[in-house]
């Protein structure tokens, strides 16, 4: 394999990895605050791409307006999901909430099939992102520059909000103990709504970037990316935002390198993600950057 | 842990009476006033566009031919969800619960193959629409189809690559989890190696799974080999993204494919990248083949105000062939329909004359099309041998 080919693989892996990372951040953030695996995250991601599709094709918005609308609406949709599926189970056993999350995921998927139809739609890619930049013989679509950038920006902003702001402090308090946080005058419901709003915005950002790279919209499109992002989050140590980014990069890069160096194993690409997960959990049960917690779901 | 186990047991216990009363409810509906055609197609999932186009053809045929032997024909449409397991479930539902007289479907050979053993065991005849893998009908007396098979289609594309494009080295990308794609690749490979006389003329075979979105790794591997053409039969949406990503990686070799590419989504998703892609298919609306073609085209254009896809014509043919077989048999009894179907010869379908060989496969022409300025454009017609 020539150096150029290898560099091309590296660039491809970086783009895929940062996309996984972007979706994984949202996954892991909600878990970090609520100790809840939000299985509907992939479906919220799917909804965001459909919002962009309809904003552009039906309401004829320019793409940047559509992107802003999608971010806000998806955030609101995340709050709605939390209201309907999780809030009333706040004091129930964790397992009930998890089952409710799975139910919400199926409900959203099937509603999307009914409302949007099963036939695929083509994501309206802004002309700007359709360009390709050539470095030597390595070709890099413009989107591949943006995705790692957006992932890194999201990481920094999120770390800032969680660690440096008052809302972030409240979030961390809620993640430790609902009751104690409430006694300290924190409005737990508002904080959780904010958490979901932010998580869903991250899903929307992921959805946009995913749509630009893979413009094939179907109601079940959130399933695999959601699962991969979940794996990425667990590899990095679920609940740890930096870990999610590390896990995402690791997963994307290993998938590309698997196909690059062992082409005959391509059919096992998705299975390979789980193999990595199992190996890492065997060696380090709390994930690469995870904190040691007694109880895990 | 205990709680989960308890919950699972509870779910199982609760679901027993549910399934039990479902089957007893539907057991007694063997209504003899209507003739039921079961239709199983992918209406959701990765192949949904294909299923939707075939349903158009079947429903149009029903509007034109709503009755046979003085009885109304009822369509029972079920979704096989673009999934082999669901396809088997859908076929089981049609034969067990709905008690259909015959079955039409499906887009996608894998789904037809999953339904094969079920229709054979139940003794219900099935007519395949655009499922082209030879194994669909092989060794199954109850499965027929109105389309040619991949041993022909693969040969057609290998010849096109060799004679028209002058290709001597090709790379292949196959959808490894799809029997249709894997079968076509085999027939293409055999013929191409025979034509070039060089087993090394197939430079590389890359794989992907149904539903994969990222093909950059496979394409990067292919790019360094610099093939003359790339044969990549597979599902339309994956193929469109494959070609788009190939163009982004600056791969200039033309892409060759097969009948599944002829969906509007292939062009929508692929955009300008799929311009120049060449594929074989069944029929072109600009070249009517039989008197029935005109009936079909007129009715379709009047109803939908656009040009029909090949698979729509095939689905239409599957329906009218069943109607014809029931007329010839003089009975809607599944066994008699099967006998009449097997004897089909010189039947005028919308997508050409159907004569079924000993396996139940139609022997007919293939059409080669390309994408030009965002439209499917007719190139040529190729007849068997």
Which descriptors apply to this entry?
heterodimer; A: 297 residues; mainly alpha; two-stranded antiparallel sheet; two-stranded antiparallel ribbon; 71% helix; 4% strand; B: 385 residues; alpha/beta; Rossmann fold; 2 domains; seven-stranded mixed β-sheet; six-stranded mixed β-sheet; 19% strand
Concise summary:
The complex is a heterodimer of chains A (297) and B (385). Chain A is 71% helix and 4% strand.
Instruction: Enumerate the spans of chain A where pLDDT stays under 50 for 5 or more consecutive residues.
Output: none
The largest β sheet of chain A comes out as: 2 strands, antiparallel
Strand order of the largest sheet of chain A: 1-4
Structure annotation, total helices of chain B: 12
- Average pLDDT value of chain A? 90
Name the shape of chain A in a single word: globular
What's the SSE pattern of chain A?
Answer: HHHHEEEHHHHEHHH
The most extensive interface between chains reads: A-B, 46 and 42 residues
Low-pLDDT windows of residues of chain B: 16-30
**What kind of sheet is the major sheet of chain B?**
7 strands, mixed
Strand order of the largest sheet of chain B: 8-7-9-10-11-14-15
Structural class of chain A: mainly alpha
Could you tell me the radius of gyration of chain A in angstroms?
A: 19 Å
Distance between the termini of chain B: 65 Å
Q: How would you state the average pLDDT of chain B, rounded? A: 88
- Which structural class do you get from the secondary structure elements of chain B? alpha/beta
The CATH superfamily of the largest domain in chain B turns out to be Response regulator
Fraction in helix of chain B:
40-55%
End-to-end separation of chain A in angstroms reads 43 Å
* Overall 3D shape of chain B: globular
């Amino acid at each position: 394999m020539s150096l150029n080919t290898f560099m091309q693989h590296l660039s491809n892996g970086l783009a895929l990895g940062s996309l996984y990372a972007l979706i994984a951040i949202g996954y892991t953030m909600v878990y970090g605050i609520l100790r809840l695996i939000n299985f509907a995250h992939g479906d919220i991601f799917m909804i965001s791409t459909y919002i962009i599709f309809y904003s552009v094709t039906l309401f004829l918005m320019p793409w940047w307006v559509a992107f802003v609308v999608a971010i806000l609406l998806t955030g609101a949709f995340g709050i709605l999901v939390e209201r309907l599926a999780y809030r009333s189970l706040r004091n129930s056993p964790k397992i009930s909430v998890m089952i409710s999350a799975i139910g919400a995921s199926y409900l959203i998927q099937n509603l999307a099939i009914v409302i949007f139809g099963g036939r695929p739609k083509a994501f309206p890619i802004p002309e700007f992102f359709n360009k390709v930049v050539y470095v030597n013989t390595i070709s890099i679509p413009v989107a591949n520059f943006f995705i790692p950038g957006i992932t890194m920006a999201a990481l920094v902003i999120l770390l800032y909000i969680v660690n440096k702001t008052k809302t972030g402090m409240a979030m961390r308090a809620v993640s430790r103990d609902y009751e104690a946080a409430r006694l300290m005058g924190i409005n737990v419901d508002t904080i959780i709504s904010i958490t979901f709003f932010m998580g869903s915005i991250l899903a929307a950002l992921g959805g946009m970037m995913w749509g630009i790279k893979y413009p094939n919209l179907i109601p079940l499109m959130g399933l695999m990316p959601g699962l991969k992002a979940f794996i990425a989050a667990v590899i990095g140590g679920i609940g740890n935002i930096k870990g999610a980014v590390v896990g995402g990069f690791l997963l994307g890069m290993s998938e590309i390198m698997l196909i690059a160096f062992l082409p005959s194993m391509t059919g096992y690409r998705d299975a390979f993600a789980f193999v990595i997960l199992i190996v890492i959990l065997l060696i380090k049960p709390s994930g690469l950057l995870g904190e040691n917690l007694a109880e895990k779901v | 842990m205990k709680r989960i186990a308890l919950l699972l047991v509870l779910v199982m216990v609760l679901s027993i009476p549910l399934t039990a009363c479902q089957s007893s409810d539907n057991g007694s509906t063997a209504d003899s006033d209507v003739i039921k055609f079961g239709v199983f197609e992918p209406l959701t999932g990765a192949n949904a566009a294909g299923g939707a186009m075939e349903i158009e053809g079947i429903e149009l045929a029903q509007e034109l031919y709503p009755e046979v032997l003085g009885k109304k024909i009822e369509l029972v449409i079920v979704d096989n969800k673009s999934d082999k397991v669901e396809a088997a479930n859908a076929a089981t539902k049609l034969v067990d619960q709905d008690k259909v007289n015959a079955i039409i479907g499906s887009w996608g050979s894998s789904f037809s193959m999953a339904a094969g053993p079920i229709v054979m065991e139940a003794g219900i005849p099935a007519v395949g629409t655009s499922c082209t893998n030879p194994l669909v009908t092989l060794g199954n007396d109850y499965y027929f189809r109105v389309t040619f098979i991949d041993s022909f289609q693969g040969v057609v594309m290998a010849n096109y690559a060799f004679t028209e494009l002058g290709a001597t080295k090709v790379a292949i990308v196959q959808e490894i989890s799809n029997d249709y794609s894997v079968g076509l690749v085999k027939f293409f490979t055999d013929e191409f190696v025979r034509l070039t006389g060089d087993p090394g003329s197939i430079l590389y075979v890359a794989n992907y799974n149904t539903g994969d979105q990222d093909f950059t790794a496979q394409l990067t591997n292919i790019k360094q080999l610099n093939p003359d053409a790339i044969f990549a039969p597979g599902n339309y949406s994956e193929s469109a993204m494959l070609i788009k990503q190939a163009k982004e990686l600056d791969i200039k070799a033309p892409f060759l494919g097969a009948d599944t590419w002829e969906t509007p989504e292939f062009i929508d998703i692929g955009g300008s990248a799929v311009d120049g892609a060449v594929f074989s298919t069944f029929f072109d609306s600009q070249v009517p083949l039989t008197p029935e073609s005109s009936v079909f085209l007129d009715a379709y254009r009047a109803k939908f105000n656009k040009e029909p896809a090949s698979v729509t014509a095939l689905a239409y043919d599957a329906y009218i062939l069943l109607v014809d077989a029931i007329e010839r048999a003089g009975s809607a009894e599944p066994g008699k329909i099967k006998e009449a179907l097997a004897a089909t010869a010189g039947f005028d379908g919308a997508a050409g004359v159907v004569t079924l060989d000993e396996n139940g496969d139609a022997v007919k022409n293939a059409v080669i099309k390309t994408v030009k300025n965002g439209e499917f454009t007719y190139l040529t017609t190729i007849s068997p041998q």
